């Protein structure tokens, strides 16, 4: 049983006026009402270089905002991610955040002379809330949900974060106000349940 | 039958000294030897903002380097992509290039009041050459190759580019020089075959 008393919300949408941000704020409101400690990171507010310039060959120094983000990831016992699916994948801003923050030595540690690795972020759970412009069942069934697999299996669980729950909301494009309102209410309720 | 006389090579690795770059150069050498016209874009050399700041709500103006890249994509009849798989996905630099360049009106056009769209980049084929730090069969079988699905199905084919061939090379980590040399030779031969 995970108490989920320390919740970190990460909003990966670059647009300060996005629906994703509204969803994240609704979740935060619900979670705060339960007395949970909540920290929120809106990536569009951070100052950091999005590109991992030398890949894994040479270190790129962490900016203060990324150091704080690492501290908050270590602090949290539940991490809730909000982002849109663009091109079957994450927006570059969020991908860059992961490339820069989920470093060897922080998120995982490769074993010498072995293809295996140690997972360094164990003991935390996560929830991905992901918007898309296609019907969510179509994204799962026909495309096999590549962004979900990349994020859940190959990023979060790779680093020891589990279980990882996924909620998909779509299609956003052409959606009615009532659809958007319904999901905002749902997020607030997720927050209250620390889901 | 695609004549493939205009080949565009796009290297998405941010590191100027990467193995991906060496692979791209080997392919270029082979293709030039056949008399094909070849253009190469190494993303680490371009000047552009990686983040699509307002999503699809508000236009972000294209930098000259991205305008040139769009011209080269329109010019090419075969596009060869080189990049590493990081976190089951593309490096942020390449994802940002796609977010910024593959815009509505350039790569696709959504139809009014419909979830369908017109594909604007028809008549071009592509080849993805993708390196990874895990065994390639494991990436396909266990993880269902999310970066391949995102890039092939939800980016290139979504925009009308097809067929899309995929070549995976891995694991790169702990690989021997002979393994790396073999794949460099293979790329040169792919270039000669305009594969």
From TrEMBL, chains A, B:
Boundaries of every Flavodoxin-like fold domain copy: 6-187
Listed SUPFAM superfamilies: Flavoproteins
Pfam families (alphabetical): Flavodoxin_2
GO cellular component term of the entry, any: cytosol
Entry keywords, A to Z: Oxidoreductase
Keyword 4Fe-4S: no
InterPro entries xref list: Flavodoxin_fold, Flavoprotein-like_sf, NAD(P)H_dehydrogenase_qn
UniProt entry tagged with the keyword Zinc: no
Molecular function in Gene Ontology: NAD(P)H dehydrogenase (quinone) activity
Domain of life (superkingdom): Bacteria
Family: Belongs to the NAD(P)H dehydrogenase (quinone) family.
The protein's name: NADPH dehydrogenase
Organism from which the protein derives: Leptospira ryugenii
């Amino acid at each position: 049983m995970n108490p989920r008393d320390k919740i970190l919300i990460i909003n990966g949408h670059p647009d300060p006026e996005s629906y994703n941000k509204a969803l994240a704020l609704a979740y935060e409101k619900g979670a705060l009402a339960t007395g949970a400690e909540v920290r929120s990171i809106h990536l569009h507010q951070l100052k950091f270089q999005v590109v991992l310039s030398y890949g894994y060959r040479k270190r790129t120094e962490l900016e203060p905002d990324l150091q704080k983000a690492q501290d908050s990831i270590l602090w949290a016992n539940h991490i809730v991610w909000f982002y849109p699916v663009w091109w079957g994948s994450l927006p570059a801003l969020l991908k860059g955040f992961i490339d820069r923050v989920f470093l060897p030595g922080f998120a995982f540690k490769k074993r010498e002379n072995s293809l295996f690795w140690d997972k360094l972020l164990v003991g935390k759970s996560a929830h991905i809330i992901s918007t898309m412009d296609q019907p969510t069942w179509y994204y799962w069934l026909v495309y096999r949900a590549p962004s979900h697999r990349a994020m859940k299996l190959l990023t979060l669980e790779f680093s020891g974060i589990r279980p990882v729950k996924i909620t998909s909301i779509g299609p956003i494009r052409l959606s009615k106000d009532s659809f958007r309102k319904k999901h905002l209410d749902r997020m607030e309720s997720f927050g209250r349940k620390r889901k």
